[in-house]
Task: inverse folding
């Protein structure tokens, strides 16, 4: 702008005013988002206490914190992961190495580590509910009563720390191989003595069904029903190379898939995110995302970190509605922070016939125009589209925007 104004051209003053106003407006929005980030994610500090807040958010030393987790990574990878925006390492995590890289640790319980002040919480044995066998004969890896006994032992040894647990997707209606009556009986008991509960469903990596992409959001919603006021997290797929199908047949997990799954989880109420990055084929790697996926993880994690205070804020009291195209599937969530409404919206259409698609069948998600009905929204209100350098001008009580297939947009406007 300064170069233009001093280059010898003399544009109309109205044009200068319009462009200047737009520049100032974007600067204020950037400052607003940066301020929220500074307030909510101040970086890694020695942990004095960790609690969960009324919005199921993590509170570290009294400040809201959004864990962005890696799983079972060697300490040699911590520095690289920190550059990609990870702030927590779970699984067989090393608390001191995590601290050195600027992250927290969520290791398995070890008495000798109890005094370390970089541990966000302990994590229970992975997937204790994993079924062996199918139907009426299915038996879990660990019975609920054994899980309760061990969890109580951990909490007795260290009552001031949170206990995490990751389940399989078998608590869900969509994926479970347990009979319904068994599923409804055992899962409340699995989480009975835990403080934070998560799960792993990998629609493409795990089973080759891109048509099951929406199982991530459905899983978060169902687990929230079980978890009540506990924080919920989801592990998200980041590539191919699983052990459960031929490598040659596996579809690629693309950045748009990972991004969509993350926003599904956030919109449905997850207050932490984890990424599963292992591959067994064509060779074993603990961190196997492609260069393209790594760029997206860095961008996405940076966005999550900046917007964490808004993601973790109380839900908006406005009765907002979203309608996408001619009845296409969509999701949204609205929160309020510092006098602003944050609206996280997602195109969840998987394409015609996706519900009948078989393993490895391609799907064809569609684009659509969304209309947002916002009671009390004044005509002329400026709607900032976060990280897109766009502003939408609202009509009275509503605004609209275009959504590419599987796309998300984040809107910020004054309450």
Result:
């Amino acid at each position: 702008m300064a170069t233009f104004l001093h280059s010898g051209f003399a544009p109309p003053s109205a044009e200068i005013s319009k462009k200047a106003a737009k520049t100032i407006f974007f600067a204020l929005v950037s400052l607003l988002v940066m301020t929220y980030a500074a307030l909510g994610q101040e970086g890694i500090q020695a942990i004095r206490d960790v609690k969960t807040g009324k919005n199921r958010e993590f509170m570290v030393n009294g400040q809201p914190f959004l864990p962005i987790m890696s799983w079972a990574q060697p300490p040699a990878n911590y520095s690289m992961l920190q550059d990609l925006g990870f702030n927590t390492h779970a699984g067989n995590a090393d608390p001191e190495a995590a601290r050195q890289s600027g992250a927290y640790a969520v290791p398995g319980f070890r008495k000798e580590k109890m005094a370390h002040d970089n541990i966000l919480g302990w994590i229970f044995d992975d997937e204790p509910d994993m079924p062996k066998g199918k139907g009426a004969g299915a038996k879990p890896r660990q019975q609920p009563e054994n899980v309760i006994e061990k969890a109580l032992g951990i909490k007795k040894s260290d009552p001031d720390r949170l206990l995490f647990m990751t389940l399989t997707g078998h608590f869900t209606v969509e994926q479970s191989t347990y009979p319904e009556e068994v599923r409804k009986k055992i899962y409340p008991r699995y989480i009975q003595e835990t403080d934070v509960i998560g799960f792993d469903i990998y629609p493409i990596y795990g089973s080759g069904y891109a048509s099951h992409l929406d199982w991530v959001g459905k899983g978060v919603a169902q687990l929230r029903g079980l978890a009540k006021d506990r924080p919920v997290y989801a592990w998200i797929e980041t590539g191919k190379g699983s052990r459960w199908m031929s490598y040659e047949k596996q579809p690629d997990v693309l950045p748009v898939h990972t991004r969509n799954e993350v926003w599904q989880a956030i919109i449905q109420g997850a207050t932490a995110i984890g990424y599963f990055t292992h591959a067994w084929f064509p060779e074993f790697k603990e961190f196997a995302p492609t260069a393209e996926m790594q760029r997206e993880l860095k961008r996405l994690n940076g966005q999550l970190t900046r917007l964490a205070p808004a993601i973790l804020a109380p839900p908006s009291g406005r009765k907002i509605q979203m309608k996408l195209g001619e009845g296409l599937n969509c999701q949204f969530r609205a929160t309020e922070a510092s006098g602003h409404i944050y609206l996280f919206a997602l195109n969840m259409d998987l394409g015609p016939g996706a519900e009948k698609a078989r393993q490895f069948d391609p799907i064809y998600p569609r684009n659509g125009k969304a209309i947002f009905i916002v009671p009390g929204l004044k005509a002329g209100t400026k709607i900032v589209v976060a990280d897109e350098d766009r502003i939408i001008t609202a009509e009275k009580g509503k605004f609209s925007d275009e959504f590419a297939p599987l796309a998300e947009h984040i809107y910020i406007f004054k309450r």
About this structure: The chain has three domains: 2-40, 50-311, 321-414. Residues 1-17, 33-40 have pLDDT under 50 and may be disordered. Residues 208 and 251 are 6 Å apart (CA to CA). The chain is about 30% helix and 25% strand.
